[in-house]
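Run log, item B.
One chain of 477 residues. Sequence copied directly from the ordering sheet:
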Amino acid sequence: MAGLQEVININDTEILNRKDLDPTAVVFEPVPRPLAYDDDIEDLVNNGHGINGKEKGIVLGRNVHSTCLDITEPEANDEVTGDKAAYMAGVLARYRQSLIERYPYNLDFDYGALGQLQHFSINNLGDPFIESNYGVHSRQFEVGVLDWFARLWELEKDQYWGYITNCGTEGNLHGILVGREVFPDGILYASKESHYSIFKAARMYRMDSVKIETLVSGEIDCADFKAKLLQNKDKPAIINVNIGTTVKGAVDDLDLVIQTLEESGFPHNRFYIHCDGALFGLMLPFVRKAPQVTFKKPIGSVSVSGHKFVGCPMPCGVQITRIEHINALSSNVEYLASRDATIMGSRNGHAPIFLWYTLNRKGYGGFQKEVQKCLRNAHYLKDRLKEAGISAMLNELSSTVVFERPLDEDFIRRWQLACQGSIAHVVVMPSVTIDKLDTFLEELVNKRSNWYKDGANQPPCVQHEIGRENCVCPAHK
């Protein structure tokens, strides 16, 4: 009985940390088919065909219903046997291992000291600068983080407003919304390589929007931008500037965008610029000789993600705008005894604490070292790919290495590669070591030799995606 009592008292964390736990020995329960599932939807997901046989241009990922983890009722004797706890611990251990192997963001952090706060539901309701009547909040941490970012982007405490968002997309939605409130009849301009959330914002807010062509690098084509501005000189311009595009990591030339606006007859009081810095917005300030994003320039807002380069363990982001823009969005909420100009209202109160903790531990100096490491390792990966005869490109201000799309979808899933057309990319984060890059390269080269060994398949030509000088397909060797 003593041994049995020991099993009963072990909590889930202790089970996960046991050295003798073998997650591969856990037998997963079979996952039942959903009770109701439309055959047309299943065909759409599995075969890429639309309803009634119409073609679907993009084949979606695998149907998660085929791999979801079922929730079952506890057995009457579970508290005695401990079977349920052991089963769940095994599931979590396997899941944790899969994250370590495949996680695409920064894993170079240790938040163990914050575990003591996970028992609390912390909710930052409403305006971060005005306390509400809900006492379990982390506003003091949130405003500290916002002050840090305001200093980074050169905006005084009494000149900015911002908040910690639930994700990077929310930062973009808020930035574009502020622009729309400043210029209700404005037209949204964004490059075609902007994050999809920018165009989602245009749909949500029923805004007129114009897609701008890009250079091969992925940067906005300011010649095309100017031509389209001149077609709409009678309406103000709301512009999304990318500080690192989604696929190629390209940084739009903010100074050239401003110059183009001015040359096209748009004074500063007729345009609003939102800077989407999801990943690279926090890296760019620490790149030597890089053009800087600063509120000393005529920009309206900046947003970054907190879960990418910073490595916060939950999705979050930071949105900063000029305080004079926010009054049109803000409204008093009596039952909160506060104001609110956020998108979501309720916000994760743990995220500000995690960000505050990381910023304090690393500081500007720590981030500078990590940025330099990322750029060095990105250049290493790009050079090794080219040495192996694989088409590859790396933008000057980026840690995103773009290369030809692997032929094997299983390989793509194993390495969490984001793909678009004939290209894929690897985002080199601080936790990505040279050893991991070597493992990836070795596996890619070995697989690739099998994909193309008999001549039936050829490596894709990617000159249009990454430039002639970066393409080493058979036609351009």
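Observations after the first pass:
- The radius of gyration is 25 Å.
- Confidence is low (pLDDT under 50) at residues 1-10, 23-57.
Flagged for discussion on Thursday.
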